[in-house]
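Notes from hallway chat w/ T.B., transcribed later so I don't forget. T.B. wanted the structure written out for a chain they're using in a teaching module, and asked if we could keep both sequence and structure tokens in one place. Agreed to drop them here.
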Amino acid sequence: MFPSDSPDDLLLFTPVPLGRATAADWHPHVQREFIRALVRLGVVAAAARSVGRSARSAYRLRARPGAESFAAAWDEAQAIAASRAWDTVVARGFGPIERPVFHRGRQVGVRQHYDNRLLTSALFAQDRAADRLAAAHGHAAPEEIFAEAMALIGSGDATKFPTRATQCPNTRDSCDARSGPDGSEARPAR
């Protein structure tokens, strides 16, 4: 919906129309500041607190009639924040962690080691998020796809899977020479 990941482009949404104006209302400038904070912080409660509102009132505003543009900006802001957080985790996860080495109370060096716990946790979280997204859009979960594939293999109905001829890597031998007439892999004589 928005042409780029720039927070300024997110601020081009149509604010939620307000019925009556009070000091605690979500005026258009407060809505824009909330979206800006959501891009920066990535957490609804923290972004709402930063503009002097509660997370509950933010969710109520999002559910109001006429809030479609605001909700789209909200979703995009969270996606940008998640992407930035992922980039940070990957940068930290692949880099070494430095720990000082002390001898007799004085630092004599630095020891570097790699800790994959942060990266593993992030990958696990991303996998769960992908499953939730697939379920929300009506796609089968990876476990269901795997179970279906195993059922096809168990039933002997392998015609639904690609043949070896279509999967051959480019080498000096042609794929046709490696596969039998029925598409099964032809083994060379030894």
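Follow-up for T.B.: Strands lie at 97-103, 106-113. Might be a good example for the class.
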